[in-house]
Amino acid sequence: MNPFDLTGRLAVVTGAKRGIGFAVAEALAAAGADIIGVSATLDPASSAIGDRVRELGRDFSGHRVDFADRDQVTDFAEALDGRQVDILVNNAGTIRRAPAAEHPLDWFDEVLEVDLTSAFVLSQILGRRMLQAEYGRIVFTASLLSFQGGINVPGYAAAKSGALGLVRALSNEWAGRGVTVNGIAPGYIATDNTQALRDDPDRARAILERIPAGRWGTAEDIAGAAVYLASDAARYVTGTVLPVDGGWLAR
Ligand SMILES: NC(=O)c1ccc[n+]([C@@H]2O[C@H](COP(=O)([O-])OP(=O)(O)OC[C@H]3O[C@@H](n4cnc5c(N)ncnc54)[C@H](OP(=O)(O)O)[C@@H]3O)[C@@H](O)[C@H]2O)c1
């Protein structure tokens, strides 16, 4: 018995089109899971992540949903109601950078809606079926900014700190009913999300100098933690956020 085996499991991965979500969907499929991938611009008929999952011998269905639109998120989740989703990876996320004193309120609202509220909506609707089945794994992509404040990203820091709260709140209610709820806090990962930081030589250097591992992370660095938290190997792990950060938080 391989405790990391996900054969026969069905996983919803949000933000699966690129970056961390792509790597997580790929790794879950490699471990045996079928994948429902969703993102703002994913083409249901044709996507690189769909091709990759099928190459790995697993089933893939793709959905285009704008997480800034709560009705779209609700409709998507309710349309899945006929299927037993075992694993939910709340990974889709956006970021808006502007100093707090000038931060546009509509940016703040947008980031909260996409990064936090949509994850709660999905967790609530898919979680109900997990509770009925007495089995589920929910994994949030949290952030270092679940623990720290960041600079110029007040909405993002609030949303990711909120994700830590949701992990704990849902875990408290659901852990005794077969549904574990955890998060992963990626460090500084080279994806589109951090392009602006890497384009700023001073910020890029300052960040790199502070990472004990001596390099930025890759999306693939995050994938193993997601497989672990989605698997039976982590059956007694719940209510926690696992940093995968090259040592950043220990410093
Ligand atoms: N990169 C890092 O250093 C880092 C660190 C900590 C946490 N994170 C978190 O990790 C998660 C993935 O980020 P990433 O680094 O992989 O960034 P990314 O490459 O920018 O990917 C973000 C994904 O989220 C989806 N998304 C964004 N806005 C959306 C919306 N309104 N509706 C639906 N989907 C939306 C995107 O969809 P489309 O592809 O269709 O546009 C994309 O698939 C995010 O929650 C992010 O906050 C990243």
Could you explain how this protein is built, in words?
Helix content is 42%, strand content 15%. It is α/β, with parallel strands linked by helices and 251 residues long. The chain has a seven-stranded parallel beta sheet, sandwiched between helices. Helix 1 (19-30) links the parallel strand 1 and strand 2 (34-39). The structure holds NADP nicotinamide-adenine-dinucleotide phosphate. NADP nicotinamide-adenine-dinucleotide phosphate is lined by residues 15, 17-21, 39-42, 65-68, 91-94, 114-115, 141, 143, 186, 188-189, 191-194.
How do you describe this structure in short?
The protein is 42% helix and 15% strand. It has 251 residues and is α/β, with parallel strands linked by helices.
Averaged pLDDT: 97
User: Could you give the order of the helices and strands?
Assistant: EHEHEHEHEHEHHHE
Q: Which blocks of ≥5 consecutive residues have pLDDT under 50?
A: none
- Helical element count? 8
CATH-assigned homologous superfamily: NAD(P)-binding Rossmann-like Domain
CATH architecture: 3-Layer(aba) Sandwich
Number of strands: 7
Give Rg in angstroms: 17 Å
Q: Record the strand order, biggest sheet.
A: 3-2-1-4-5-6-7
Task: Please tell me the total number of domains.
Answer: 1
Terminal Cα separation, in Å? 37 Å
Hetero groups bound? Answer: NADP nicotinamide-adenine-dinucleotide phosphate
